[in-house]
Amino acid sequence: MDNELKIKMYSFTLDCKDPYGLAEFYAALLEWEAVSIDEEYACVYPAGTKQGAYPCILFQRNSEYIPPVWPEEPETQQQMAHIDFAVNDMEKAVQFAIQCGAKVADQQFSSHWTVMFDPAGHPFCLCEMKSIIESDHFGLL
After folding, report:
1. pTM of the entire predicted model
2. Domains in the chain, CATH or no CATH each
3. Which residue in 16, 49, 55, 130 has the most C-beta neighbors within 10 A?
4. What secondary structure, in 3-state letters, does the chain show?
């Protein structure tokens, strides 16, 4: 790679019908801050950093957004990506996510993670990773 070229992650973007509403959910879940950029975009970023801190989770209005079906079923809207969140206590994390507005997926395939849905229907996983969270290598808390 060219020494002058820089490529850095800017955001992980999720389509939805209500950008600020979904940003508020993730801000509550992660104890981050939410900001409405305009009617089309909102983002969340780690608390204590200045507005516009990157990388962030960005929410983009898509009036045609259709929630994915999980687990996948033929001829239905498929998920393209999901976010994994490391947790140190699965039971407490699941209950907190529910209080924030998430739902637990009906089907689960592991005892090491719990698949959940955000208010817009995007799947995300809570992953039991206490040793990683407590590691010096974990970037964002």
Report:
1. 0.83
2. 11-133 (3.10.180.10)
3. 16
4. CCCCCCCCCCEEEEEECCHHHHHHHHHHHHCCEEEECCCCEEEEECCCCCCCCCCEEEEEECCCCCCCCCCCCCCCCCCCCCEEEEECCHHHHHHHHHHHCCEECCCCCCCCEEEEECCCCCEEEEEECHHHHCCCCCCCC
